[in-house]
Amino acid sequence: MRILLVEPVARKAQETTWHMEKAGFTVDHVNTGHDALGMLKAYNYDLAVMDMRLPDVDGYEVIRISRAARVPTPVMVLSEERAATAKVKAFSIGADDYVTRPYESMELTARMQAVIRRSKGYSEPTLRAGELELSLDSREVTVHGQNVHLTGKEYMILELLLLRKGMVLTKDAFLNHLYGGMDEPEMKIIDVFICKLRKKLQAAGAGQLISTVWGQGYVLRDEGVQTAMPQPQQSTMHATVL
């Protein structure tokens, strides 16, 4: 899952990024409100984690402007300010959660995962399709209760397919999800990743969950789910290593 961290203090940004990446998140970092607005409007993040004290515009204004622009990205405030008035103000303008510093890293990442799940319409940390289960918390994939070992990029592809189950995703959407515009390989690499992922799932007994929609992309289908045609999608900016 992809996170935008908005934090002007380098030491705090480095520490928070470390905790997030350890929990399996991919993190982009900016240190100003204007940069945050630009990234939120340009890319489709799973969550923005934001300090309120920014050097140009404050975090409240960033949230207000992004909500006025109908940016759907959920926002978690991460701040030293403990006053109830600050929390009420943040929630009233569109924040989805409010965490105060100092924080416990396990609580922070658990609350991040909870906000993301709610924003995707899931109330629990496990995504399912048939006998396939993916845990957003542990990043484990099982079929019939048996672990399926995936590479980092195979997991990211499967996670995206499950979060958007029934929706056709273009190869360009996968490419941006995996590489975020940085050192992107040729688009055919997506076919390679999908092929390897399919083989692992089929070998585990998951069946033909991932289907090809010729000329459009790929979709993960589950029984009773109607496939949605692809919609214009914003890119997501990140780089991940296999």
Automatic annotation (TrEMBL):
<keyword id="KW-0238">DNA-binding</keyword>
<dbReference type="InterPro" id="IPR039420">
    <property type="entry name" value="WalR-like"/>
</dbReference>
<dbReference type="InterPro" id="IPR011006">
    <property type="entry name" value="CheY-like_superfamily"/>
</dbReference>
<keyword id="KW-0805">Transcription regulation</keyword>
<feature type="modified residue" description="4-aspartylphosphate">
    <location>
        <position position="51"/>
    </location>
</feature>
<feature type="domain" description="OmpR/PhoB-type">
    <location>
        <begin position="124"/>
        <end position="222"/>
    </location>
</feature>
<dbReference type="InterPro" id="IPR001867">
    <property type="entry name" value="OmpR/PhoB-type_DNA-bd"/>
</dbReference>
<feature type="DNA-binding region" description="OmpR/PhoB-type">
    <location>
        <begin position="124"/>
        <end position="222"/>
    </location>
</feature>
<keyword id="KW-0804">Transcription</keyword>
<protein>
    <submittedName>
        <fullName>Response regulator transcription factor</fullName>
    </submittedName>
</protein>
<feature type="domain" description="Response regulatory">
    <location>
        <begin position="2"/>
        <end position="116"/>
    </location>
</feature>
<dbReference type="Pfam" id="PF00072">
    <property type="entry name" value="Response_reg"/>
</dbReference>
<dbReference type="Pfam" id="PF00486">
    <property type="entry name" value="Trans_reg_C"/>
</dbReference>
<dbReference type="InterPro" id="IPR001789">
    <property type="entry name" value="Sig_transdc_resp-reg_receiver"/>
</dbReference>
<keyword id="KW-0902">Two-component regulatory system</keyword>
<dbReference type="InterPro" id="IPR036388">
    <property type="entry name" value="WH-like_DNA-bd_sf"/>
</dbReference>
<keyword id="KW-0597">Phosphoprotein</keyword>
